[in-house]
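I am still learning, so can you show me any protein sequence you like together with the matching structure tokens, please?
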Amino acid sequence: MNHAPALPSPSRGTRSRPWQLAGPLLTWALVAMVIVQLAVGLLVVCRRLTGALTNDLSPAQMLLAALIATATVTCTRIAWRPLLGRNPWHDPLIGWGSSLALALFAIGCAFPAYQTSDWMIWLPLVMADQLWRKNFFDVGQRAAEAAGGTSKRSVLPGAAAQLHPVASSRTGKILSAECEQAHDEDVVQQLYRVRNRQGHEMIYGALRADFSAGQRTAVVHAAFCPPLPYFPEIEADAISGHATRIKVVQALAHGVRLDVRLAAVAEQACYVWIDMAARPTSPKPKILSA
């Protein structure tokens, strides 16, 4: 069964995002800017190494050159942020290319760096650029995960059954046929019970956590009927690629409570699918007495 995306698409009447309005012209303009930065930085380095540039810059001139180079690199990355995650090779080009351009500017302007002021100006900027680049790629990874989460995926027995092959082999075909008959947004929970080789019942399933606009935390309850004969160990993970923290608040023989927290407040109504498993804590769990 294919479920609806965890975040609503613009076709549902939502406001268009900036990255949806940015066209190929902006993409190639920023790529060209990075290439120009690399070319200029490489030219300065070559002229410095070949002796064409011999005069050392004064501390004030060096500081001005460093600030201009850093501002150019920073502005390029900021302008690229709305486009993060849209192309697998553009992001590394912008991130690593701008870092390399800044390093080339530092070498070309400061080489051989006999003055202490040269090191004091360029070294902090180059080191800080490593942190800026890491943050740049982290934002891109989250953007790519969010974009991937909007695609159609299999809920049951797809993602859940991949984690639990026993359930897939015994109930997969039946559940797949049942799920195809239900509309994506009509399904809130779907649980199924299997018996392991030791004869203990286990419960697997998919749960949906709904969020309203402005909401960040949701509570999900799942009832086990009939109750399990033991206190289960609960495993819960978000099926979609969105950054979500799931906390098992209560795990009892007759049900479980989960607290689901988004990485940021929901801008509009959305939901996240959760893959849940309730299993024995040991091969020989303590059976509850009636």
Q: What stands out?
A: The helical segments are 18-21, 24-49, 59-80, 90-110, 116-149, 155-163, 165-180.
